[in-house]
Amino acid sequence: MKIEDIKAVYFVGAGGIGMSAIARYFLKKGLVVAGYDKTPSELTRQLEKEGMLIHYEEDTEQIPFACQQKASCLVIYTPAIPAEHQELQFFRNNGFEIQKRAQVLGTLTQAHKGLCVAGTHGKTTTSTMCAHIMHQSHLDCNAFLGGISKNYGTNYILSDSDFVVIEADEFDRSFHWLRPWMSVITSTDPDHLDIYGTKEAYLESFRHYTELIQPEGALIIHRNLEMKEHLQDGVRRYDYSLNEGDFHAENIRIGNGEIVFDFISPIENVKDVQLGQPVPINIENGIAAMAMAQLNGCTAEELKYGMKTYGGVDRRFDFKIKTDKLVFLSDYAHHPKEIYQSAKSIRELYKDKHITAIFQPHLYTRTRDFYKDFAEALSQLDEVVLTEIYPAREEPIEGVTSKLIYDNLKTGVKKEMIQKDEVLNYIKTHQFEVLVVLGAGDLDNQVPQMVKILNSKK
Predict the structure, then answer these.
(1) CA 20 to 30 Å from 209, out of 232, 255, 294, 450?
(2) Which reactions is this enzyme annotated as catalysing (predicted)?
(3) How many CB atoms lie within 10 A of CB 62?
């Protein structure tokens, strides 16, 4: 089905951050947009205000008439939805065009120049940075992001530009649907082993992804990754890292709440780049974002302006309270390497402060596979509070609990295990200098209440 033939779009699993960006794209086009989601959330409520019809029970009777027309309705589903879902079965049994979100994005990368960012971690920040740089430049862009950009208050940008910035998701091999014009690969630390099975299969998936980059395009890959790319003839290859590579930083200055560095590039060096969100980990993300924007024609001044005015992403090193007496932030980090980088950045920023993390592990399989790595990463901090595992799509695994992480935290780290519903009371009854909530589960839903409690204690 061509995009121009679509009159209605139905989402089976409407409330995910990535799905909502596609929903908004079609809402903007003036189509009938409807869908199902398991649980109401702030995001689904906002989508309803914008005109999307959403219900929260499996019920084919609630599918709008326009979405029951096979010839003109596109059905989009998330892999997290079980195959036996009543509504998904209804569409399959009646021969509807059914696509994953990534297939829809793949179509867009064939209609536009796709600037895609893949990697185990860093891809949301890097793609959002690149989208902001491009959008405020003379080039402009469309964008479909995996997080809410603080600059725009949304996870998508729509324009008449020929460029589209896309966060390329490796979960369920979704990024294999894309046909990038250019791509950044930030990292390939094994993840989603419940899907891939082995590290080798995970790395092979990234290798296959690099084959999809279009001739005359480019790959911008982090130095020293384990994966081996396989590029079509005519695809340019660049590497980057913090301190070395085709693109890297020099003369890094961190102090007084600011980070400034020189961007070193084979195209044109850019001096005195200031980070709008001054977090050490964002230097490297910024290098990748600037590299892709520069390769597509952004000027030095546009790069500097874009980086200086970048506001960050919700739940990505997201400061909620920042005073001399108390710092509180929320971070989506849920893989050991992400936790490590997040903890390292917090420690760099607050060398002399007592740092407490409340961590909600995400997935039983990820906890089983990486509990020692989680413990090592968290052990950079002074105090670690663990809640029960957020299961997402999984059933419990016998013997796999947060205690695996708890038992492997290094000696000297103060530690505690509590239930998720005890977190607010824990915050009420304890004092903090720096507090961070970590994880990709639903603990973040309580962050607004945490802010109120912490502010009331000042």
Answers:
(1) 294
(2) UDP-N-acetyl-alpha-D-muramate + L-alanine + ATP = UDP-N-acetyl-alpha-D-muramoyl-L-alanine + ADP + phosphate + H(+)
(3) 15
For residue 374, which amino acid is it? F
pLDDT single digits (tens) 120-176: 888 999 999 999 999 999 999 999 998 889 999 888 898 889 999 999 988 778 899
Domain with CATH 3.90.190.20 in the chain: 318-456
Q: Which amino acid is at 206?
A: F
Any idea which residue has 């998936």 for tokens? 205
Residue 232 near residue 196, CB atoms below 8 Å: no
- Pinpoint the residues of the chain covered by CATH 3.40.1190.10: 104-309
pLDDT digit string, tens, across residues 230-248: 999 999 999 999 999 999 9
The alpha-helical segments, DSSP class H, found in 68-121 are: 86-93, 101-111
Phi, psi of 116 (to 5 degrees): -110, 145
Give SS3 for 435.
strand
Residue 81 contacts by C-beta under 8 Å, 6 or more apart in sequence?
12, 13, 88
Q: Report the C-alpha gap between 32 and 27 in whole angstroms.
A: 7
Please state which architecture CATH assigns to domain 104-309.
3-Layer(aba) Sandwich (3.40)
**How many Cα atoms are found within 13 Å in the side-chain-facing hemisphere of 169?**
19
State how far the alpha carbon of 108 is from the alpha carbons of 32, 115, 232, 298, 358, in Å: 20, 11, 20, 22, 39
With beta carbons less than 8 A apart as the criterion, state whether 428 and 322 touch: no
Name the token pair of 79.
């892999």
Looking at CATH, the fold of the domain delimited by 318-456 is given as Protein-Tyrosine Phosphatase; Chain A (3.90.190)
